[in-house]
Write a structure and sequence with these properties.
Helices cover about 25% and strands about 30% of the residues. With about 120 residues, it is of the alpha+beta class. The chain has a single domain (about 10-115), classed as 2-Layer Sandwich (60s Ribosomal Protein L30, Chain: A), CATH 3.30.1330.40. Strand 5, helix 2 (about 75-85) and strand 6 form a beta-alpha-beta unit. The chain is built from two helices and seven strands.
Length: about 120
């Protein structure tokens, strides 16, 4: 399934020192890619990182992560891939839920809140 190139939302919003990143999935050139939850998590986090960069932030500034998985059985493999991104503490607070996603090929969707340095 190809995703609309211009969805009706912003990839991020900056409010004061906070950056809210909209849910990202494993999209590459408008198509969901990645074989399995580990690969899709890595691609998704790469997309999160690119959106954060657009907003002037980095993954090290992430304070909260909301992750949506489509299959409870993927939780351990998701955690393993996620731990490769946030390797050192303190790691962001996180909520993980299991739900259907609008794109049936996506196994994970991730949104984050980052805090920019005061200034």
């Amino acid at each position: 399934m190809t995703i609309d190139a211009a969805p009706p939302y912003s990839p991020f919003q900056r409010v004061g020192d906070l950056v809210y990143v909209s849910g990202q999935i494993a999209l590459h050139d408008g198509v969901v890619t990645g074989a399995g939850i580990g690969e899709q998590t890595a691609i998704t986090m790469g997309n999160v990182e690119r959106v954060l960069a657009e907003a002037g932030a980095t993954l090290s500034m992430v304070r909260k992560v909301n992750a949506i998985l489509t299959d409870r059985a993927d939780f351990a493999r998701f955690n393993a891939a996620y731990a490769l991104v946030f390797t050192a503490g303190p790691r962001p607070a996180r909520t993980t839920i299991i739900a259907q996603l609008p794109n049936a090929e996506a196994l994970v969707e991730i949104e984050v809140i980052a805090e920019l340095p005061a200034g």
